[in-house]
Amino acid sequence: MSDATALDPPGREPARGSALRSLYRWSSQRSFAVSYAVALLAVGLATGVVAGPARGIRLLFGTGYESVIERGHWWSPLTSVFFVDNGGELLLALAGAVVLLGFAERLMGTRRTVIAFLVTSILGAAIGLGAQYLGVAGGEMWSRGVVELWAIDPFTPMFGSAMAASYFVGPLWRRRIRVLGLSTVLVLVLYSGQPSDLYRLLAAVVGLGVGWLWRPSLRVASWRRSSDHETRTLLAAIVGMVAVGPVVTIFCGARFGLLAPLGLLLTQDVPSAGEVIDRCRLDDITRQCVQELSLERIGGAGPVLVSLLPLLTLVVAAFGLARGRRFAAWLAITINVGLAILAAWYYGLLPIFGQAYVWQWQSGRYFEVTLILAVSVLVPLAVAVVILGNLRHFPVASRTGMRRRFLLVTAGSLAALAAFYLGIGWLLRDHFRPAVTLLDLLADVPERFIPVGFLRLERVSFLPTDPLSTALYDGVGAAFWIVVFVGAIVCLRSASVGQTADAPSRLRSLLSEHGGGSLGCMTTWAGNSLWFTSSGRTAIAYRVVNGIAITTSEPVGPRSEAVASVAFFARMCDDNGWVPVFYSVHENWQDVFVLMGWPSVQVGEETLLRPNRWSTTGKKWQDIRSSINRADRAGVRAEWTSYRSLSFAAAAQIAEISEQWVQEKELPELGFTLGGLDELRDPVVRLMIAVDAEDRVHAVTSWLPTYRDGEIVGWTLDFMRRRPDSINGVMEFLIAQTAERMRERPEIEFLSLSVAPLAPSSGPRQGGIATGLLEYLGRTLEPVYGFRSLLAFKSKFQPEYAPVFMAFPDSVALPEIGLALAKAYLPSLSMREVVTLVRGLGQ
Questions:
Q1: Looking at 601, 630, 658, which one is the last position of a domain?
Q2: DSSP-derived 3-state class of residue 687
Q3: Per-residue pLDDT tens over the stretch 596-645
Q4: pTM, full prediction
């Protein structure tokens, strides 16, 4: 029967009472946040979950210009934060109360959170109302346009409190909270532009001021990512805002923001037949007119994709910017310049229909609308210019030829689809109304690839009349943007981070001089990438899995460069958009990561033998002595050799033994820090094999050297395989014989039986999500690979235990790190083998 607790997620206790106590403890630390969520739920249920509060309740408790200034409802800035518009907003508000307010309360305490909640609610609305009052008095269009709107918004104090709490976290989370929080409220102000959006933005700013007053003393010894990373993060947030903002315009009820026109360009509103669009000129524009400008074009999947995919491509570019990709920067520049040009064309800032255009600045009534339309053009253009001016912050190039290939494929697809539209369209010319000529089709080609919203001022020359012509009319543009979208993803995933041809030999020279620890030889294995400091005296071996750069043990180099090598490697990873993880580092490196402010967690224990003190006398060595005697009686001897010195028959037997072991597991051989047959072939690796009188190989172990000043000072056990029918205790015999041989060599300081990966410490358990995640991963693989059993086997030799650790800069990446480690150890795990692994857990 399997252990039921092995199936529990990390940190979960099977006792129900314990779960209830944990829930009580969690809620007691967030009493105000929970109370506010309960109040929101109660008010929402009482006032109507579906339609929201009735008009009378909104007028009494909602806030806004008319509510406070004209009716004197001075209490409304505070009462308005307890109501929501509908059921969907209620669910978001409940989640926000638990996450945002709970986060603030956990960091600042209940008293400060309550103060921040009240201050940001009241001041955010009060400052916004003051600005509206001045705007109405001065005849400003936005203030007058929203004078009758009543705001009910629980998110105003949530964002304000979260901004205040940002002072109580480390630099990484502080930057994330502020960038994401301020980007969110700015998007809503610029694209939606309702009074509640303005109050929310002002509450966030007030929250930053409140938090500044309460800020704790500055923390020291904390690693900060490079300024390049911060610049990339901000630019990615801005590009993401430009991409997501139009969606806000499309779905929000009112569109008053400065950039609302840019969002309206990407909608596909189908107008009524009697709508007249020529009345809307730049010198005589009303807000309603701007929103109603549209074109009689039929909808469908094609136009939707042509309108949506440019935005999705911009979102992809934003992700690439955050990871430092140069290609993403040029992609964002191109799309934003295109948006600016098309917006300028649509809004009449460029001549339309070939007619001369005359600015009518003397018309003060519509000056503000003209300015808004100009901003809609200038914002994407400004974004492109800013990215262009910061290209140096995006150093990661795509693999050789990828960008050229993308351009060729894009241009080729555009030309091929345009030719296809012309050719098939000419064959189907009678399927359009009115019938088209080749010149009509040629003039219409550009419009097939532009979002429908940008063409609303263009008169319709012809329309398709049947499914075949409709598919051609709508499909060529969609096909083109699919090619662009997929090609952008492929190109962004092809980052080029290479190494010089002499890197392996340079690494071996450093290993010979400095050793690199007992696991240093593993840095030479295939699959590792190599990075060197600028001095060339320190090397770090790593492999990138799903954006996580996992090192193979610690840096190889002089101790004097320890801190610098870790810091500069972390910066290199940061430049490439990777999360650096130092895996299987020894305890003597802990002070380096403590100095940098990185958390660490124990991932296993290395077992060490001292050959100069080796002895098998005493009762606790009975198993080892029995194994040696059993081998002697069976005529099995131990041979210290290398792979190149093996006979062909012996090498074939070792391959056969390894293959049998893998087949028994029904899962692939582990990799990463566990070597296989390929690693045996390294000339510096030594083998201790068990051979009988008939030269039949019973078992094999491999040993990796550790150097200092060119001399071998230790050996580390790696590869262990035995025949299923070999004598009992053959592995104990081989390890004991290796220790006996090394005892005769006084220069050998240690024999390492290596690390049992993902095996928990035999000492007191560490807490935290990192430990829970690694223990869960170890439990998952234990039924098949037996990490704990391996650790128990090594304990027979009465070794010294040396913990090894994993250090990482940011706990938020732990789920990704866990998955990356699993994939690093099992890179070829198939779906069938996953099923086998899961089935093995229940046995």
A1: 601
A2: strand
A3: 888 888 888 888 999 999 988 888 889 899 999 999 999 999 999 999 99
A4: 0.59
